[in-house]
Amino acid sequence: MYKVYGIPNCDTVKKSLTWLKENGIVFEFHDYKKVGITKEKLDEWLKQYPWEELVNRKGLTWKQLEESERPTNQAAAIQLMLDKTSVIRRPIIEKGKIKAIGFDLESFQKL
User: For the segment 57-68, what is each residue's pLDDT rounded down to a tens digit?
Assistant: First the structure.
């Protein structure tokens, strides 16, 4: 079963969940806002992708950060993602490992 990480009111997450349901993909949803994220999960993801690809630099949370709060290395990025889960790109879809980050039709069709 796939696990989808995100925030339910995010338009990209909504679009992704709709696509998954319409295509009969069984998944479990992990709500960052309600459940949070663990350092262990972030470490697991960071073995697959660099922190720069996991941090959402287009979102409101990022834009509201002071320049001094923006991470310049992996340790700072981990702390930011733990403190402000809405800065994590979404959705992240995994099944054993990350299968997709964000809504990308090509990646979704491979699911």
Answer: 999 999 999 999
Query: Hey, what domains does the chain have and what are their CATH numbers?
Result: 2-110 (3.40.30.10)
Question: Of 66, 60, 51, nearest to 101 (Cα)?
Answer: 51
Q: Which of 4, 7, 10, 88 is catalytic?
A: 10
Name residues whose C-beta falls within 8 Å of residue 56's C-beta, 6 or more positions apart in sequence: 62, 86, 87, 88, 89, 90
Based on the residue annotation, tell me whether 10 is a catalytic residue of this protein.
Answer: yes
Task: Name the percent of the chain lying above pLDDT 70.
Answer: 100
Q: What distance in Å separates the CA atoms of residue 102 and residue 10, rounded to the nearest whole number?
A: 11
Indicate the pTM of the whole model.
Answer: 0.92
CB atoms within 10 A of CB 79: 13
